């Protein structure tokens, strides 16, 4: 199984989409001889799906087609050499994955056919067991359905531990600690911008283009700042560097 779980898509408005992860993504594409990819753009609410596909074609150097360009969404995934799941609104994305029959289709493609999965922001969230640690608003009145469960631990993308002056609400740390208090058997990996997790051949690696840490939240334990995946060893079935 090969997963790229990215906190975000860009580091700046004028930066290429997935640009900060291009060395690793290009190496994987070249090693596998991938010529095309299927984009699942359901999370995008106000943007243009085809424009996003075109951006990815330029960034990755391969043909990228939207899932709706195929006869059915399931047929698109069954033919995919590479699956891309865009950022946007996680609630809408997860609901559309269920309504389109893509939960099982993507699980089978990744687990049985070893099709690589690249998800950023919302696309990262839905790769975990559930979307309960998303930052997004539930824009539809939908229940919290299970997500893809490709990665066994909850992730909080776009993690920021800054406390804005004058803000009297809970910080991100407090919200994630609340999640762990309500769900004491679950943990949360908080990924900063410009960072991602890579699962390859049963091995888990962490990358940060800025050399920053990620945070690990567990009930009854101090928040742990980590720069490698060793702390995740008890939580994931993959070898850690």
TrEMBL record:
What is the official name of this protein in its record?
A: Dipeptidase PepE
Keywords in alphabetical order, please: Dipeptidase, Hydrolase, Protease, Serine protease
Superkingdom, taxonomy of origin: Bacteria
Q: Name the Gene Ontology molecular function terms of this record.
A: dipeptidase activity; serine-type peptidase activity
- GO BP field: proteolysis
Q: What InterPro entries is this protein classified in?
A: Class_I_gatase-like (IPR029062), Peptidase_S51 (IPR005320)
Q: Name one Pfam family in it.
A: Peptidase_S51
Q: Which residues cross the membrane?
A: none
Which Gene3D superfamilies does UniProt cross-reference here? 3.40.50.880
The catalytic activity of this protein is classed by the Enzyme Commission as 3.4.13.21
Entry similarity comment: Belongs to the peptidase S51 family.
Q: Which NCBIfam families match?
A: PRK05282.1 (NF003642)
